[in-house]
Amino acid sequence: MNATTLTSPTRTPEKAVMTPQPASTAERPRVGEALPAPRPVSFLRTVRVELRKMVDTLAGRWLVIVTLLIAVIIMGSFLWVTSDERHNVVELFQIVALPFSILLPVIGVMAATAEWSQRAGLVTFTLEPRRWRVIAARVIAGTFLGLGVVIATFAAAWAIGGIADLAGLNVTYHVDGWPLFGLVVLLLLSVIQGIAFGFLFLNTPAAIVAILALPMVWQIGAGLSQRIADLTPWLELNTAARALTAAPEMTGQQWAQLGTAVAVGIIVPLAIGSWRVIRGEVK
User: Fold this and answer.
1) Is residue 283 part of a domain?
2) Residue 154 within a domain
3) This prediction's pTM
């Protein structure tokens, strides 16, 4: 009879079981105790979020990039065509005022209508139910974005002037404070006007068409009627704001014309648009 070897069955090692540790008494919520109120979103954080949203989209980012590229091309072409003349960096900056008066309002319009064109308003106003704070944050963020584009353009003008100076062209760097300040204020007013029209229409194409067609309508009306021509400096923002760069010191009448034009072209559309955003139904 052959003896058989009896082997004990092999035991597989048991896996360690992670048992959750009981929470301390201080961390346990008590029955019937009210949960702590959520902390409200700070206004500074809202401004940062709105500023980031303006350049997060492909359209917003490329609009800023194309605006800067157009400014560089215009300044470089101007120096190349007029290479025999004497130039100033502020003069280079001033020649981009016309295309900027068209492109910067578009940046403002897109900043104001993003929530309604991209169907993201429900998320925004759920996270921040106080809509007036969102409106104020968007106005501030759009102004900062426009100011950043203006500063970057002036830096590009300074760099292009330096390159042209090294190439043998006659470029000076004397900066007259008042024309530069007036031009910056003029461009920022155009951005804020774009934001105001964006809130007024809540539609990107309609707001862009309105803000670009309005100066032409005033110009045509001024050519047809002397009464409209007399009212244009008081009601049309671009005409009233030219005094910021055309004269070293503005008269009292010019300041009054600028004030009424800002009220008609910015404050009134912004007030109506804010009322529409606050009272409107978000879908």
Assistant:
1) no
2) yes
3) 0.81
